[in-house]
Amino acid sequence: MSEDKRMKVYLKGLKKKKIKGIELIKRDEKIELWEERPNCGLFILHYSEGSEDDYHVLRSHLLQYGPLSSLIILSGINYGYACYESLESAAIAYETINNSYPILPFSPKPHPFTVLYTPIQHNLQLGKDSICYENVPVPGLIIEKDFISAEYEQLLVEELDKLPWNPLANRRVQHFGFDFIYGANSINPETPSSGFPAWINPLLTDLQLKFGISYDQLTVNDYQPGDSIPPHIDSHSPFEEILACISILGPISMCFRNTDGREFNQFIPPRSMLAMTDEARYVWKHSIQQRRHDIVNGNLVHRKRRISLTFRKIRIGPCRCKYPEFCDRDRYEEGSN
User: Fold this and answer.
1) Are 80 and 74 spatial neighbours (Cβ–Cβ below 8 Å)?
2) pTM for the complete prediction?
3) What is the model's pLDDT at position 200?
4) Poorest-confidence range of 15-24, 42-51, 189-198?
5) Which CATH number applies to 3-126: 1.25.10.10, 1.10.630.10, 3.30.200.20, 3.30.70.330?
6) Element (H or E) spanning 188, and its range?
7) Which of 62, 183, 207, 232 is least buried, going by the fewest C-beta atoms within 10 A?
């Protein structure tokens, strides 16, 4: 077969693939009428596995045409979305890619891709459930970025990894001060475990200065990408009101859900401190959903290994909170930040 014929066959196959891709996008994006008109948004028919490596390969190529304000490709979905900061950049990308069919080193093997203009003012469905925000309206929820330094973060990781991790079904844990009793979502105050190591003291001091609390129980969780925890409220009876969680290494999104149906995904960057007080502590369930990515400000953030250090104060006496209808409602469910 001549080179000219081979190219015609190749382009014919690519055209058929593009037609199928358009039908996929129309179905998943709930598009009824679609007229391609120049705008900053592009659907990308990449046909890759949608891995983190594929994301970086595609991003590197698309940036040749101009700055991006958003890029989303997800594992197992053959199309993605890109938004350029200017119409000019989007037009250059559209014309260049669709005229040259660049072949990129996608997984599982190198292949070309094509792009389409999105409908004007389209409500993107791709990754909709993964969108999270930097400040969500949950009463009593406090988040403080850069609560610790990168140097102290590294020290914590090194010291924790010197100690044995206890495996659970979906993560590994360590406990200090008192052992956490899973199943009862509680502790036994009569049997304290090891004390706090010296390298935890700076955190204890900073948290005491901030909240006026001398924390005496610490649960450390080690998560890998895709690990999750079910929706729960930390038991009222064993612990005082303010729970403080230091998040290190990878970013994460925590879902907060109210019984009235409201639900928000709070983005938690590395080295930040998240505290739950009042309603956030006693009323809203929190969870980590099982996925390997989050979408923040229109951009895909891949999850990495994450360690959380959750500090609690043991309650002496019965709970006197103003939310008795929620007291210990999840006492027998496994869960921890």
Assistant:
1) yes
2) 0.85
3) 97
4) 189-198
5) 3.30.70.330
6) strand 186-192
7) 183
